[in-house]
Fold this protein.
Amino acid sequence: MKVTETHLKGCFIIEPKVFDDERGVFFESYQKERFEEAIGEKVDFVQSNFSVSKQGVLRGLHFQIGKNAQAKLVQVAKGEVLDVIVDLRANSKTFGQHYKQKLSEQNNMLIFIPKGMAHGFLTLSKEAVFTYKCDNYYDKSSEGGIIYNDIDLNIDWGYTNSEIIISKKDSELPTFKELYP
């Protein structure tokens, strides 16, 4: 596997070794020892999540805070998404900056997102199957979010607001400056 750290410290792109032949494709999406050696830290995933979204659906930008903060390992099993991570670690040199990457069933990439980051994705294909592992259990009282079209974050999703399908809950999220004045 090839592991590359993004400009957000601790956030890694993982490109597994893919075996492709006339039967189809095989790759190891996660192997604890190799994964931890590659990113340089121990991570114990305790929860795995799965979502199916249609084209134009945007989920995010979400995060967990405090003792329930979550590191995540995300990937797309089917389709294509634009994945976005925002650094919310106040002591980080990249605080308030974002990273975006297309994830798809063609490129087989995964992203490791450390604790202290907001995460979201926009479905680019007709449908996308998105999976992710978390190192902490979901806790509703610890969840937070930032509105996807925040002016200060200035994320270019590649879609207009009228093309994006978003939940009522996500459409009412606060701005970055409301959370981090």
About this structure: Residues 32-39 form the longest helix (8 residues).
